[in-house]
Amino acid sequence: MRTKMDKVAIVILNWNGAKMLAQYMPTVLKYSRDEATVYVADNASTDDSLALLRRHYPECRIIVLDKNWGFAEGYNKALRQIEAEYYLLLNSDIEVTHHWLTPLIEFMDVHPEVAACQPKLLSIYNKDMFEYAGASGGFLDRYGYPFCRGRIFDTVEEDLGQYDYQQEILWATGAALMIRSKDYWDCGGLDGRFFAHNEEIDLCWRLRIRGRKIYCLPESYVYHVGGGTLPKSNPMKTFLNFRNNLTMLYKCLPDGELQHVMRWRFFLDYLAAFQTLLMQGNVGDFLAIFRARRAFSRWRSDFVADRRQIQASRKTNEIPEQRSFSLLWQYYAKGRKVFSQLPEHS
User: What are the distances in angstroms from CA 334 to CA 305, 320, 342?
Assistant: First the structure.
C-alpha cells in the first residue's frame, strides 16, 4: 500500500496506443522520473499495451480500467486512485524534453493562485511549428470558439519566439496539463459525460469562474503528434466538438450572456453545417452537426444543476481571456489569422 503522496503524478491515458507508448514512453521516463511518478491508465485496450508496459517499462505504474471510459471519465477514474499534489495529464503521443517539468513545478510552487498550467506545444513533424491542440495557450471568443497563441482555426504559426513569455490563459491543453489535485476535485474534475473533446476547456473555464488562474509557461516545451485517436475530419469528432461546446457554454456563460450567445450559435452552427456540405461536399460532418444540436437539446436538462452550481461559484463575470469579439468575423472578414493580429479588447 502506498504511504507517501507523490509530488507530481504524470498520468498517461491509453487506449490501444501501444505504438505511441513504445515510441514516446522512453523520453517521458528519461526526462521525468527524477521529478515525478509516471502512471499509465489503460482504457481497456485490446492491443498489447499492457504487455509492452510490463515487459519494457516496469517502473511505470499501471491502472487498469474496466472499459473505455473516454478521455474525461477515464482520467476521473484513474486520478481517484492516485494521491499527488499535482497531476500532469499527458497524451501518449507527446515527446518531452530535458528539464521540461522543472519550470512547471517551480512556477506552481510559488504561485498558489494558479490552478493549472501547460508547456508550449510544438509539432513533432515540424519542430519549428506550433501544434494544433493547444499551441502556446488557449482562449475563447464571445461565442465559444477556441483559439490559441500560435493557432487560430486551421492556421498554425511558426514558432519564432513571439509567444515566449508567461501568459495567463483561459484554458490549458489536455495534451499536457498540470493541475493541482485540490483544484481538480474542488471543481468536480473533468465532465465525464463529454467523453472526449472540449472537456479540458470546460474544466479550465470552471476554474476561472471560481477565480483560479491558468498559465502557459513556454520555457517548458514538448512535441506533440496530435490527432492520435480520431482523424481531423471524423464525423464523431465533429459531433462531440459541437455537442460538448454547446454544453460547456450552457454551463459556464453568465446569465446576462447565455440567451444572446445561444441565439447566435443556433445560426452559426447551421451555417457551418451547410458550408461543410455545399463548399466541401462533406455529408458526414453536415449530419454530425445536426445530430450534435439535437443531442444537446435532449440532454440540456441534465445540466441544470451543474449550471446552477457553477454560477453560484462565480467570483466575477469579467474573465479577460474570454474575448468579447467574434473570432469568425476577425478571421474571415478582417483576415486576422494569427493571434498577434487580434484585438486585445473589443
Answer: 39, 21, 10
Q: Are the C-beta atoms of residues 209 and 313 closer than 8 Å to each other? A: yes
Global pTM value: 0.94
Section 30-41 average pLDDT: 95
- For residue 226, the model assigns a pLDDT of 83
- Any alpha helices (H) in the chain, and if so which ranges? 18-32, 49-56, 70-79, 101-110, 181-186, 199-209, 235-252, 255-278, 283-299, 304-312, 327-328
What is the Cα–Cα distance from 172 to 222, expressed in whole angstroms?
Answer: 14
Ranges of beta strands (E only) in 176-240 are: 176-180, 213-224
Q: Per residue in 69-112, pLDDT tens? A: 999 999 999 999 999 999 999 999 999 999 999 999 999 999 99
Strands 213-224 and 114-123: parallel
Rounded Cα–Cα distance for residues 257 and 248 (Å): 13
- 53: cell is 508496459
* Residue 137 backbone zone (phi > 0: left; psi -120 to 50: alpha; other: beta): left
Taking the C-alpha atoms of residue 195 and residue 198, their distance in angstroms, rounded to an integer, is 9
Q: Among candidates 206, 120, 210, 220, which has minimal Cα distance to 171?
A: 206
**pLDDT over 70 percentage in the chain:** 97
What are the beta bridge partners of residue 63?
Answer: 41
Confidence of residue 333 (pLDDT cuts 50, 70, 90): very high
pLDDT of residue 281: 83
- Residue 156: which H helix or E strand, with range? strand 155-156
Residue 229 has pLDDT above 60, yes or no: no
The β-bridge relationship of strands 213-224 and 94-95 is antiparallel
For residues 6 and 64, is the Cβ–Cβ distance under 8 A? Answer: no
Assign 69 to helix, strand or coil.
coil
Return d(Cα 228, Cα 253) in angstroms, integer: 31
Which grid coordinates belong to 336? 486576422
What is the length of the chain? 346
Paired with 216 in beta bridges are 118, 167
Q: Are 117 and 216 in contact (CB under 8 A)?
A: yes
